[in-house]
Design goal:
The protein has about 190 residues and is an alpha/beta fold. The protein contains seven helices and six strands; from the N terminus they run αβαβαβαβαβαβα.
């Protein structure tokens, strides 16, 4: 589990509860999988025997992600100009503060650019109390940032297809599935 290898001070309250439960289950399991060797190492450093942890890297299904949807999602949402896409939890660990700072700089040069941020806050499904909206107002970039909230998986291929660039400014990752989805779609990745 990705959250199990993250220090407690860097995760939210909901993840702390899951952390404890996952740690208990992992310690009682015969075998555990990790999506990257860095995560495997993190588990071993937390007391799991190396012989009990197997790395099975993330993968995407061929044909699920491609440019076949064209820009249909972008058109439906009346977005003009280039789209920079982020998919993930809207947390500090995922680098959202750095991403929003970069929006300010990029938008100075490209006025019609839109940064589309797909995802929720921790385990919440909506963004009614999204603290990042306040940041977009402080930076005067509200017109350049579009928050979708959590979307169903079946909508993601269409959203990726509408993007021009994918960005993941995360501070810690194993083998991010979202990067693989972006690459499979044919997007340049930052």
């Amino acid at each position: 589990s990705p959250s199990w290898t993250v220090p407690d001070k860097e995760i939210g309250l909901a993840n702390k509860v899951f952390n404890r439960l996952e740690g208990f289950v992992i310690k009682k399991s015969n075998t555990t999988t990790a999506v990257a060797d860095s995560m495997r190492s993190g588990m071993i450093s937390r007391g799991i025997k190396g012989s009990k942890v197997i790395t099975i890297e993330n993968f995407t299904q061929p044909g699920t992600f491609s440019k076949s949807s064209g820009k249909s999602w972008k058109v439906k949402n009346k977005i003009n100009g280039p789209v920079v896409l982020f998919v993930g939890k809207l947390t500090e660990t995922k680098g959202i503060p750095y991403l929003l700072k970069s929006v300010k700089k990029v938008a100075e040069k490209f006025k019609n650019i839109k940064f589309v941020l797909v995802g929720g806050l921790e385990h919440e499904q909506d963004l009614k109390e999204n603290p990042w909206i306040k940041v977009t107002k402080e930076y005067k970039i509200e017109d350049n940032v579009y928050f979708t909230g959590t979307v169903p998986f079946y909508n993601l291929p269409e959203i990726y297809s509408s993007a021009d660039v994918f960005v993941l400014p995360s501070l810690r990752e194993g083998m991010p599935l979202v990067v693989m989805e972006a690459i499979t779609t044919g997007l340049p990745v930052i």
